[in-house]
Structure formats: C-alpha cells, structure tokens
Amino acid sequence: MMKKYLCLGLLFVCSQVVYAKDYAMGYLAPIRSVTVSSEVTGIVDEYSSEIGDAIAQGEVLVKLSIVDNLLNVKLAKAELGVSQNELITQEKQLQRFASLYKTKGISASDYDEQNRVTTLSRAQVEVDKIKLAMAQREKDKSEIKAPFSGTILKRNVELGQFIPSGEALYTLVDLHKVKVQFHLLESDILATKVGDKVSVIIPALNNKVMAGKVDILAPAFEAGEPGFLVEVVVDNPEQILKAGMQAKVEWAEQGV
C-alpha cells in the first residue's frame, strides 16, 4: 500500500488519501453547491432561513426594502400615462391633418411634420413601457429566491444589513446526491470507464456500503495534479451522507 497526500479540490483542503490496488479514499461533497447573491442593492427587511434548513426551489430567502422600488414603479407608470395621452392627441391631430391635406388645406411638409411627431410619440410610449417593465423587474429582484431545492450550508445576512449588488447571502447545497472526488494514476485510469459501478463505504456510518457510479473521468492529466481526476456519484435520498465524510471507493476485482 502506498500513501500520497492529495488536494481534493472541491473541498479546498489537503487530505491524506490512501491508494490500494482495488480502492481509493476521498471525501463526500454535494452534487451541487451555489452561493446565492443579490442582483440589486438594498437593505435587508426580512430573511427566514437558517443553517440546516431544507429549502424548496423558488422559495424566498431574503426580502430587501422596496420603498424606492415602489416609487420608481409609480414614476414609470406616471410617465407612461403622460406619453399615452400625448400619443392620443398626436394621432387625432394626424387624422385631422390627413383630411386637410386631401383637400389641399395644408402643405405636404406640414402633414409630414405631424406624421413625424406622431411617430415619435408612438416610440416614446414603447420606451416608457420598457421603463415600467424594468422598474417592475427591479422591484421583483428585491426578493432573492432559491435557484434549486437544497439545504442551507451558510448564512451571511442580517436584518438591516446593506446589501450591494453581488453580495453573497447564502450557500445552498443539494445533497440528494453526493460525489466523491479522487485521483488515479495512469496505470489505473485505463481500467476505469464512465458508468462503472463501485461500492462506496462510509467509515463514519459503521462502514455502511452505498452503491456508486463513476460519473467523470478526466480526459487529461492536469499539471500540478497527483493523477487523473475521477468523480463517483452516490444517491442520497434520505440525506444521511454529509459533505466532508470520508469515503472508501472499491472496485470489483476486474477493475482498478
């Protein structure tokens, strides 16, 4: 048996990993992990989720103050109302000018000018509709929602806190499946393929054996890495497997 010190990138820690002929050691990590951030600036009015809480996709995690947003929406609606009324006036004027032009009551240049003004009024209405939609969208962004169902791993938000755009608020992980990452040498990687079934043994759970499957095989040897990256995925419907647990991956005799 040969011991090597490998850096398991997903967990950002260096750990002792033991290789033997038919197994490798690694650590469990979530199948998905994301830092939930705010797209807009604002003051935190409300948050309801704590570390360890189960979260459904689309659930509101944080609500920012919308006082300014409501004013912007109100302003955009008022501007749209003004431009719509102006368009009604200009279209009536255009109809009147069209009748006068037919009877030679006005010149072609006068009619063309009114047509131009009416066209600009129509364009202004469309611009103000877009402004209103943008104001509404900005208000909607004051509610920060979970991008997928998962579990809260970290909370970085407090009531009354000023949140700049891009500020990290929560770390959300999906533990319905977990993965084990480790590295294999070139002599072992040739005997491994995506889809291979393996046994994943969890020492912390009295050596509980879980079924796993090779999901990723690195196509190349990365400079600075101790070997070819391999990723094994394990179903975790009851979420008894926790990120950071040590895992022993075993192959059948015909494997590596």
TrEMBL record:
Highest taxon listed in the record's lineage: Bacteria
Leader sequence residues: 1-20
Alphabetical UniProt keywords: Signal
Molecular function terms from GO: efflux transmembrane transporter activity
Protein's organism: Photobacterium jeanii
Protein name: Efflux transporter periplasmic adaptor subunit
Family affiliation: Belongs to the membrane fusion protein (MFP) (TC 8.A.1) family.
Location of the CzcB-like barrel-sandwich hybrid domain: 33-174
Family matches, as InterPro entries: Beta-barrel_RND_2 (IPR058792), BSH_CzcB-like (IPR058647), RND_pump_MFP (IPR006143)
Source lineage: Bacteria, Pseudomonadati, Pseudomonadota, Gammaproteobacteria, Vibrionales
Annotated CusB-like beta-barrel domain residues: 180-254
Gene Ontology CC terms, in alphabetical order: efflux pump complex
Keyword set includes ATP-binding: no
Pfam families registered for this protein in UniProt: Beta-barrel_RND_2, BSH_CzcB
SUPFAM superfamilies recorded: HlyD-like secretion proteins (SSF111369)
